[in-house]
Design brief:
- This protein has 122 residues and is mostly helical.
- It has a domain at 43-117: Arc Repressor Mutant, subunit A, CATH 1.10.10.10.
- The chain contains five helices and no strands.
């Protein structure tokens, strides 16, 4: 048995800008309502972890933010790779991030906010 092809909706004749493309759904549905909530890191309180990081987790986060791979962190700190993995897993659980890149960004934004709070660099 052959299936009938669905009729295609005619698309725009010219390419859309990124802004326009965000407003048009390729599936013909309504576009999502614009976000009214502020950006994740708009206020100082968002740099505070849900649960306080331990000193060791702070050290691990600094090394992650410095783009050190887990193997290098383990060798440098003279600990097992699985220990590094566990520290990083705990960090992800405590701060509002889901991956290594976001953790590094969170770390540097927090450092920048702390520096600004102290009055900038001297």
């Amino acid at each position: 048995m052959r299936r009938k092809k669905a009729a295609r909706k005619s698309g725009p004749s010219k390419p859309l800008s990124a802004h326009e493309a965000g407003k048009v759904s390729p599936h013909g549905g309504k576009s999502p309502a614009p976000a009214t909530k502020g950006v994740k890191y708009d206020d100082e309180g968002s740099y505070k972890p849900a649960e306080r990081l331990t000193v060791r987790e702070e050290e691990m986060l600094a090394l992650v933010a410095d783009d050190q791979p887990n193997e290098e962190i383990a060798r440098r700190e003279n600990i097992a790779r699985s220990t590094v993995d566990k520290h990083i897993e705990n960090i992800y659980r405590k701060i509002p991030v889901k991956n290594r890149a976001s953790a590094a960004i969170w770390y540097w934004k927090r450092r920048f906010a702390e520096e600004q709070k102290r009055g900038g660099r001297q």
